[in-house]
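User: Second chain of the day. Same drill as before.
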Amino acid sequence: MKAILSYFSFISLIIILLSCGSDDTRKIQKVPVNIEIIRFDQELMQTKTKEELAALFQKNPEYVQSMYNTFPGDTALISHVFYLSQHPETRKLYDYTLTQFGDFKKLTSELEGAFKAIKFYYPDFKVPKVMTTFSGLENDISVSDSLIIIALEAFAGPKAPYRPEQPNYILSRYSPDYIVPTVVRFLSNPYNKLDPNDQSFVADMMFFGKSLEFTKQMLPNVADSLIIGYSDAQLKETWNAQDLVWAHIVDKNLLQEKNPAVKNRYFGERPNVPEIGPSCPGRIGQWLGWRIIQKYRTENPKVTFQNMMADANPNEILLKSKYRGQTEE
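Assistant: Same format as last time:
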């Protein structure tokens, strides 16, 4: 019972800290950012001939390059996409998808709020163009510093007539609420400094941990479950068992491990990590990195968020975090 109470005490502390940051919240809200979601999906699905689709692709070469890594005049691609856009079953999926997004005000507001926060912390941030599309479940999200493309049907949710070909433990993350946290996490990459020569387990932990913390910093009101893709039950169980997770990492001398196959067991997509236990969720190394970053910020309150993101020394972060698998009391 003590561990469970500690979990909720920590959550309460976070809420208090966020409320103390209300001045920043007000400043973020005043950051001048306006976005318009370009409804490329509508234009694509309204084409009646291959020639119309080819002309649409010619007008949007950055879309074709980002989504398909080819040139706009690729005739095989045009034929394929046109076939998908006209097929009765894919049109059925598209019609259902539109019912899940309504007037797009919610998605627009969430993206605008995230972009305001990023620009507040990083004034040089340039708001990327945002496009929605329909890909017949062949894509989901493409993010660069200048263009974000969201394949809406991939996120139509559990009742959609067709869903991405993913195992259930991944498929649960394909719903509308996951779109913005996923986008923001991708956008963290330019600010998440690392030493490219350090391929160690601890370096990977800190990279993933900082990317998750960046997402939480920009989306403080979004549930942790949506940021990391764990259920609430998994978050609680992992929190309570983090001493066992940390003990495994230390006992197996994993911190300086560089073997990609070994690291993938802890950072990659898996239903669980049986090396630790049958109920240990996949990507546990990412969660542990986030936990260490949170502890680092608690132990080093004078280090700014931006300086933390720019710190490319993972061993120093771990040392200064004073993390040893403990929970906050």
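Residues 192-321 form one domain.

User: Great, on to the next one.
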